[in-house]
Write a structure and sequence with these properties.
The chain is mainly alpha-helical and 772 residues long. Among the domains are: 2-225, Alpha Horseshoe (Leucine-rich Repeat Variant), CATH 1.25.10; 586-700, no CATH class; 702-772, no CATH class. It is 65% helix and 0% strand. The longest helix is centred in the C-terminal third of the chain and has 21 residues, at 703-723. The chain is flat.
Length: 772
């Protein structure tokens, strides 16, 4: 087993001859049939009677989310139990690596993330030799796949997190030597990478390796971190409130070069009222100043930047958030006009809600006259030398920036308010914002002011504010105009408008007429949902469907929504499509016909390889239709019984016969249909469906015919007996008798020799006697 079958399987995948689709199914068969051979019993937990949970059947599924789910389940399964060393484990490592490196970046990210976790989980149970070989393979793959370096380096970090080798002994000395002399130098070479992502991950990986080495080696390589900790310790000892300003001024005077200024924001934060202006000057110099443009010797500049962690990424925006959390709001709010600080103010305990609403209202109200004019140009870097509002030309020439900041602040606060915790005082403070936000909706600064206004409106709609009724018409008109002009749903403005429209459709204060709902359905984005789908647009569609709008256009989009529900990679999109279809009542026959057309196309597109039989797994996954065949079968059977439209009845029969011919659970569905036929309240449904089984499948089990004939005979006998016991004009059991005879007719067309069988001759004779 190990020397021949498993060896050749492993060689085929490791050498790139095969992707592993067929091999993984063969291994599953061996695990189920020969668990005692080749340590295969350890892989039994990865198999499942539920096909959706079976790792082997889903790891190569055509749907990315199913592949990701299977690999994630694999990682969880082996978290606490190891897999034995051998060909199968090496095969899985190769498969996960192939998936990790396959395809374009930013596509199937969930699958690649799952592969990283799976490889890291495998490494947690490896011997040092296998563990070290896995790390070296990551670096080899980096040379061959330079565009995947960032992801591979992230995998290295995850594997290092699973380091599980005890200290002490000769083996530890060997491990230490490999880490210090081989692995660490390989990582440090990546410090010079031109990619910021690789550069950053390289530093993280280096620190992880250093943590595994003796303390003296780690200390000698982390000097900058030590210096920062020493400075922080001195400030803590002296007292931040008394000496922080002095330290900041001293650092500003010493660190003047571009690459050094980036280091300044790291120690900031805490109770900062007394040195707020100095700190903001430091932060602004890093973000907006011209220190980056200062001339340094070219080689020296490059060397400095690559050596210093602090120059890799701006820390100033994080520093702004910390500053906002640690100053007195009432006296310093105007100084903190920056969108990056709005979140920080939410964490500031000195903020009074009343003061905050007053501050926001006046900031927006003071600048509303400037929102309708021409867009002013951004202030130049040279003019923005100070963050003091009274001295900043940018604040005077760009009032809309202040408005956007205030609206962001309002939005953050509104999201924290629970609708069931509102009171009259809160309502009185928020109600004036309704008219103010209506003015903002007309601003020329669409992507900034209008987008922020719609977000605030959406949050306000959760509350019952008096001004909603008086302003409802104008709000609807303006938001509809913005959304109607949108070509795509991808922009921030359109997304926020769609969310607001969804809230408006569901809000009783903003009743949209049927004409307005029809206008929403005509939006361009609904014409091509498959290429322009978003949760926001589908949420709006769901809200419209709930209003029971009866227009043909609703059913025109059923095709698109049904396809998205099955084929889209984003789970939230698939779930939203499912919600929409559940809310469709399909009162028009055109809608029901559209659904049947979609099902017919899907069955043709995803046929099962072994129609009419209990299918075997193919290509590592079940048929897409096969996974849902039982649910589809039951729903179609119920509609077959209820449908009155003759054209649609024929359509349902065609779809059901097509489904029966390719379903993976043929036997269980046939058994279910026989059960229906034997039950008094579902005989009509059973007779109709069994007739379709006979028509659809030439290999319909002939032995079932005698059972069906006896049941049909019983039904006909009951119908004959009841004929003389009821009033004239009322015919009992006529449907059951009629569809039983239709089923018998189909049976004789398929099996004409049944009339001459000894087992069924008497039954047929009795049936014809009752009929004629």
């Amino acid at each position: 087993m190990n020397k021949f079958i498993l060896k050749h399987i492993g060689d085929a995948v490791n050498n790139g001859i095969s992707s592993g689709k067929w091999e993984i199914l063969l291994i599953r068969k061996m695990v189920m049939s020969l668990p005692d051979s080749g340590n295969l019993a350890a892989f039994r937990p990865l198999c499942s009677e539920n096909d959706d949970l079976d790792f082997f059947k889903n790891v190569f599924n055509i749907q990315a989310h199913r592949r990701a789910k299977a690999i994630n389940n694999f990682a969880k399964e082996i978290k606490d139990s190891s897999l034995p060393e051998g060909v199968v484990r090496k095969l899985l490592v190769s498969i996960f690596f192939n998936m990790l490196l396959d395809g374009q970046e930013r596509k199937d990210e969930n699958v690649r993330d799952a592969c990283e976790e799976a490889l890291a989980s495998l490494s947690a149970h490896m011997s040092w030799t296998s563990y070290y070989a896995l790390l070296n393979r990551c670096f080899r793959e980096m040379k061959q796949h330079t565009d995947k370096s960032k992801r591979l380096l992230n995998l290295v970090c995850l594997i290092l997190d699973k380091f599980h080798f005890a200290k002490g002994g000769e083996a530890h000395e060997e491990i230490r030597g490999c880490l210090e002399k081989t692995l660490y130098p390989k990582i440090t070479k990546l410090f010079d990478s031109e990619s910021d992502g690789v550069n950053f991950n390289a530093y993280v990986a280096a620190v992880k390796v250093l943590k595994l080495l003796p303390k003296e080696i780690m200390d000698s390589n982390i000097d900058s971190l030590g210096a920062r900790k020493a400075l922080a310790a001195c400030l803590k000892e002296l007292g931040l409130e008394n000496y922080l300003q002095l330290v900041v001024k001293k650092l500003v005077s010493l660190l003047t070069k571009g690459s050094e200024v980036h280091c300044l924001p790291s120690p900031t934060g805490w109770k900062l009222d007394h040195c707020l202006e100095d700190l903001l000057d430091v932060v602004e110099a890093d973000i907006l100043g011209d220190v980056d443009e200062q001339k340094e010797d070219k080689k020296d500049s490059i060397r400095r930047r690559k050596k210093k962690k602090e120059t890799i990424k701006h820390k100033s925006l994080d520093s702004l958030r910390l500053i906002a959390e640690n100053v007195t709001f009432r006296s310093h709010a105007l100084t903190l006009l920056s969108p990056h600080i709005a979140i920080g103010l939410e964490g500031n305990p000195s903020v009074d809600q009343g003061d905050l609403f007053c501050f926001i209202y006046h900031r927006v109200d003071d600048n509303k006259s400037g929102l309708r004019g021409q867009k002013s140009s951004q202030p130049s870097k040279k003019k923005r030398k100070s963050r003091r509002i009274q001295d900043t030309s940018g604040a005077k020439s760009c009032p809309y920036l202040i408005t956007v900041f205030a609206l962001d602040l309002l939005h953050n606060r509104l999201n924290r308010i629970q609708p069931n915790n509102t009171n009259e005082e809160l309502v009185s403070k928020l109600d004036p914002f309704v008219k103010l936000l209506v003015v903002c909706l007309s601003s020329v600064y669409e992507e900034d002011v209008v987008s922020s206004s719609t977000k605030c409106f959406t949050a306000l709609l959760r509350l019952q504010l008096p001004s909603f009724k008086s302003e409802a018409r104008e709000v609807k008109t303006k938001v509809l105009a913005i959304a109607q002009s949108a070509v795509s749903s991808s922009s921030t403005l359109v997304q926020s408008c769609l969310k607001l429209l969804t809230a408006l459709v569901s809000n009783d204060n903003f009743k949209l007429s049927s004409e307005e709902l029809k206008m929403l359905i005509q939006f361009r984005m609904f014409s091509d949902l498959e290429s322009d789908s978003s949760v926001a647009s589908l949420s709006l569609l769901k809200a419209i469907v709930r209003k029971k709008l009866k227009v043909p256009k609703i059913y025109d989009i059923v095709d698109q929504v049904s396809r998205l529900m099955i084929t889209h990679q984003n789970e939230s999109i698939r779930n939203k499509c499912g919600d929409i279809l559940k809310n469709l009542s399909y009162e028009h026959s055109t809608g029901r016909e559209a659904v049947l057309d979609v099902l017919q196309k899907l069955i043709h597109k995803f046929p099962d390889p072994s129609p009419g039989k209990q299918s075997k797994p193919s290509l590592g996954h079940q048929s897409v239709v096969g996974q849902q065949s039982q649910n589809l079968f039951i729903e179609l059977a119920l509609h077959l019984e209820r449908e009155n439209d003759q054209k649609l009845l024929a359509k349902i029969c065609d779809v059901m016969k097509l489904l029966i011919g390719c379903m993976t659970n043929y036997k269980s569905s046939l058994k279910l249909s026989l059960g229906w036929y034997k039950q008094e309240n579902s005989r009509v449904r059973g007779a109709k469906v069994l007739g379709l089984f006979i028509e659809a499948e030439k290999k319909f089990p002939e032995k079932k015919c005698s059972i069906l004939l006896k049941e049909a005979k019983t039904i006909l006998e009951s119908a004959v007996k009841l004929q003389n016991t009821v009033d004239e004009g009322s015919i009992p059991l006529w449907k059951e008798a009629y569809y039983s005879l239709v089923m018998i007719e189909k049976m004789l067309k398929q099996f004409p020799h049944l009339c001459f069988h000894e087992d069924s001759q008497e039954d047929f004779k009795d049936v014809w006697t009752m009929v004629f």
